[in-house]
Amino acid sequence: MSGSERKIRALREILQKPGNNTCADCGAPDPEWASCSLGVFICLACSGIHRNIQEISKVKSVGLSHWEDQELEFMAKNGNEPTKKIYEATVPVYYYKPNHKDCQVLREQWIRAKYERKEFSEAGRNLIYEEGTRDGMLMKRGRDNGQFLNRRFVLSEREGTLKYFTKFDAKDPKAVIKVDTINATFKPEKIGNPNGLQITYLKAYSTRNIFVYHDSSKEIVDWFNSIRAVQLHYLKVAFPGATDAELVPKLTRNFLKEGYMEKTGPRASKPFIWELIILFFLHLRIGLFFLVLQRPLSLCLKDAFAKGEVFLGNKDHGYQIFPGLPSGTHHNGSWQHGITIKTPERCFLFTCETEEDQESWMKHFSDVMSAPMSPQEFAMEATFRHKH
């Protein structure tokens, strides 16, 4: 056995240690790269980020690079789990730790926060996300013309709000958003910017969207985690007996599913039209659909207002999901795989392009309807049904 073969075999043995079989930064399986200066195994995508912080991280391929004996010894001594105990020792519960499915900006700032800025390596450090207020400028998409303009945003833990102003020195905000209604998720492809953030919130029990970005990836991720920190503070005040494990799932989260379906109106005889539906759970159980018709899909994806909404309650309270469409439904659409959502008031009829899409949508709707409802969600249901 040659020296290089011996070293590759030694690396493979180190990879078998607990925690080394997934990327140290995003959890992707079977990492084939490593930082021989930090002592962690990482995936291809995260290795590209590590290459941009060369003064801290020296990246090598597990199977293709030349390894020195002292580098092998360092990897064997350290590895993912021991290194996490150093660089992730004090990660706040609200801080969003990205996985391999998340966008580049989240993974990059997570890696830089850990290894470059060492934000989580020692207790008692003052983090920018926990200052209680944040005031700055973000590029916001206009509701009518679609142009992005610089707008001032102010986040306040004391007031439990996120405000934005059309002018920096304006006295009155254009909008006051309660943090407990906010969901924020990165949508770079939809917004057309790698740092694009979609903020969804409730206003008078109707859903609104704001699309923003900042040229600095650190700045936009700092805003994102600051919102989560303020949300957690609000929830701890509202639910003093709840644990962090119970509250963290109520913070911002990604949409469960986003895609296209055909939809008919409340009367089954009404022809189907092509619509976009966005389903997200949040803690508000609201599914949204946006009218497409002949408009460019990119515009529909960035609508500020939903064409329609449906509250998805629990299956034991009159909410059901069925494959197919009711008998006698007038279906002139091109998609044949039907879904019927039944609420206490009415039925919503959709069709999917493929059977695979139908099964995926059915699973997500069913999961939401199977989850128990909180007292707050029962109150939301009552208000939602009265309004709609």
TrEMBL record:
Cellular localization per UniProt: Cytoplasm
Molecular function in Gene Ontology: GTPase activator activity; phosphatidylinositol bisphosphate binding; phosphatidylinositol-3,4,5-trisphosphate binding; zinc ion binding
Keyword Acetylation attached: no
GO cellular component, one term: plasma membrane
Highest taxon listed in the record's lineage: Eukaryota
SMART domains: ArfGap, PH
Keywords: Cytoplasm, GTPase activation, Membrane, Metal-binding, Repeat, Transmembrane, Transmembrane helix, Zinc, Zinc-finger
Domain PH intervals: 131-232
Name of the protein in question: ArfGAP with dual PH domains 1
Organism expressing this protein natively: Oryzias sinensis
